[in-house]
Amino acid sequence: MSRFSERHVIIVGGGASGVLLAYQLLQQAHSNVRVTLIEKRPEVGRGLAYHTGNADHLLNVRAANMSALPEDPDHFWRWLSSHEHGQQLCPDPFCFVPRRLYGDYIASLIAPFLAEDDGARRLTIIRGECVAVSEGASGVTVSLADGTRQLGDVAVLATGHDAAVPRSAWHADPWISPSVPGFSQDATVLILGTGLTMADYVLSLLRAGHRGPIVAMSRRGLMAKGHRRIAPCKISEDEIPFGAPGSTLLRWFRQRIAAHVADGGDWRGVIDAIRPFSHRLWHELPQSSKRSFLEHARAWWDVHRHRMAPEVEARIATANADGQLRIAAAKLVKIDGGSVAGRAHYRRRGRSEIETLEVGAVIDCTGIVRDPRATANPAVRSLFDQGLARCDPLRIGIEVTAECAVVGADGTPSQRLFAIGPLTRAAFWEIIAIPDIRSQCAALANRLVQAQPIEVPPREAPALAAAPDHQVAI
Question: Model-level pTM greater than 0.70?
Answer without folding.
Answer: yes
